[in-house]
Fold this protein.
Amino acid sequence: MTISDRIFERLDQIAMTQKEFARRAGVKQSTISEWKKNKTNPSSDKILGICRALDVSPEWLLSGVDPAASRGKNQEYYVIHVQTDTGMMIEKVNRLGKGQRDRLLGYLEALSSEDRG
């Protein structure tokens, strides 16, 4: 199954129109029609918008693997929108030097230990 096949399967599952999907994903309706008509896949810069619009993980969209089957297990990565609190924190942490990041991790560890104690 291709990425575009999964997109259209998901649209059917959630009863979303292509027009609504285009609006939510930030993609032109004509582009979506091309995916369907020509059985082509979206470009990589569209993947996260598509995932948000369809409420699916990039892993599922790209591979068909359902991460829900592994819930409760530690994930190896997270997909975080840059305009959330977490996304903004990550951007700021990435600007820090190694020593500053190490100190910050120490503070976070101490704070999380207080929550448990």
User: Anything to note?
Assistant: The mean pLDDT is 85. The chain has two domains: 3-70, 85-116. The domain at 3-70 is CATH 1.10.260.40 (434 Repressor (Amino-terminal Domain)). The two ends are 49 Å apart (CA to CA).
